[in-house]
Specification:
With 447 residues, the protein is an alpha+beta fold. It has 16 helices and 11 strands.
Length: 447
């Protein structure tokens, strides 16, 4: 960084090319780029600007209150004077922002550490001061003739995101105050706050002593329960929950022109979309009637979540990678996906968990099998409820196979029965679970 002699202007040397890297690591750097993307009418200009910035074509950047300036070169070497103007804060806005920052020691410490606490930005926004730019806050100017953002102004904004990562005071300088002026203002306000607090404490102590001399409870305060009740009484009722969206949100597409550091962009975009779909499902369950009365499901294991993701993936490459990551072959993963579709994690467990019931569980299972094909009035086997003899079932651990029929039912650890059919030498899940063995056997569509 070069000091121009003007305390309200700083010049930052040109940064080296940045192939394959993002242009922001901090949350405020990302917010700056979102403002660019939301402000530009043509997203292609933003993408071209990102490529220009990555190539190192942005020269030294001059930062001053209300504006940025740099020379940006095209591939053929043509230089363009490029400016981006940003609205400065008014005196009233600076007073509110400095008052908020000085009131919290943690805010000042974070700023000195070159950090922008998100709570400071939120508090400032609530006070009517938008610390970070938003839609329409950028005013691009370039001698290339474009009236909106062009690749040159977009490249300058991307380069400034890198500067903001290193020094958030760049943003505050754009808003109108240099670092030294800002810190002096914070120091003065902090000292004034400390003096006011000392005066208040001295006054409270005097009142307490006076109250004690007269036998009163002056300065003793009120019970917390009473103060809380009084505060609650003045609050409006909570607003109703918002309506559930019609569909999951669409994550933004990633720039795939330059593969960043070997990152598989297609896989990341798939994971983002899958996360949005899962968030939508969880939200739908959370707002459904009776949700609070239902027990929370157990968290998925890595292997279970891979099957869930595979079921949502349409790209064969993603499906193959998920199968390999869990040690399954493609055929094994397809079976797992089929089982998941019939019953989620319990359905997958019925496929892959070849467990042996303990004595109590086995006794209950045998009783259920015996009762499933017995007429309650006559005690005679009626065979699947269709008037035939009870089927001959051969048990191995928690699996009962119907002799000569290519059909099987499996007992899950949760106590439900899962139907399977024999197909090309493999046992294939063939339906959702049932509460009893006969229903599971009848549910097999291949039967």
């Amino acid at each position: 960084m070069n000091d121009t002699g003007d305390p309200y202007e700083k010049t930052f040397a040109a940064l080296p090319p940045a192939p394959g890297r993002g242009f922001a690591r901090t949350w405020w750097g990302h917010a700056w780029l979102r403002a660019l993307e939301d402000s530009a009418l043509d997203g292609e200009q933003v993408r071209q600007g990102r490529r220009v910035a990555r190539s190192g074509a942005v020269g030294a950047v001059s930062v001053r209150p209300g504006g940025l300036t740099a020379v940006v070169r095209d591939r053929d070497g043509t230089a363009h004077r490029t400016d981006v103007l940003v609205q400065e804060f008014s005196q009233a806005e600076w007073d509110r922002l400095l008052g908020l920052a000085a009131a919290e020691a943690g805010y000042i410490a974070a700023l000195l550490d070159r950090e922008v606490p998100p709570e400071l930005a939120q508090d400032a926004s609530a006070a009517g001061v938008e610390l970070l730019p938003g839609v329409g806050d950028f005013d691009p100017r370039c001698d290339c003739g474009e009236w909106d953002h062009c690749p040159h102004t977009a490249a300058l904004c991307h380069q400034v995101a890198r500067l903001l990562d290193r020094d958030p005071f760049v943003l505050l300088l754009l808003r109108g105050r240099g670092e030294r002026q800002l810190l002096d203002g914070l120091e003065a306000r902090s000292a004034a706050n400390a003096q006011a607090q000392a005066r208040n404490q001295a006054g409270t102590g005097a009142q307490t002593r006076a109250g004690g001399a007269h036998g009163t409870a002056a300065g003793a305060g009120v019970p917390a329960e009473r103060a809380y009740a009084a505060a609650r009484a003045g609050l409006p009722p909570l607003p109703p929950l918002p309506d559930l969206p019609r569909a999951p949100g669409q994550p933004p597409a990633l720039d795939t022109e330059d593969e960043p550091g070997g990152l598989d962009v297609d896989a990341v975009e798939f994971l983002a979309q899958a996360a949005a779909a899962e968030a939508f499902r969880l939200l739908a369950e959370a707002v459904a009637p009776g949700h609070a009365d239902r027990p929370a499901p157990a968290p998925l294991t890595e292997a279970e979540d891979a099957v869930r993701l595979t079921r949502e993936a349409g790209d064969v490459r993603v499906r193959s990678r998920l199968a390999a990551a869990t040690g399954r072959s493609r055929a094994e993963m397809e079976l797992a996906v089929l089982a998941w579709g019939f019953g989620g994690a319990p359905g997958l467990a019925a496929l892959e968990d070849d467990w042996t019931p303990d004595r109590a569980a086995l006794a209950r299972a045998r009783a259920a099998v015996a009762a499933a094909w017995t007429d309650a009035e006559t005690g005679v086997g009626t065979g699947d409820g269709a008037g035939e003899d009870a089927p001959v079932l051969r048990r191995v651990r928690a699996r009962w196979t119907r002799a000569g029929a290519g059909r099987q039912i499996r007992l899950g650890r949760e106590g439900r029965w899962w139907p399977y059919r024999r197909e090309e030498g493999r046992w294939i899940p063939s339906g959702p679970s049932a509460p009893d063995p006969a229903s599971a056997m009848e549910a097999d569509p291949a039967g």
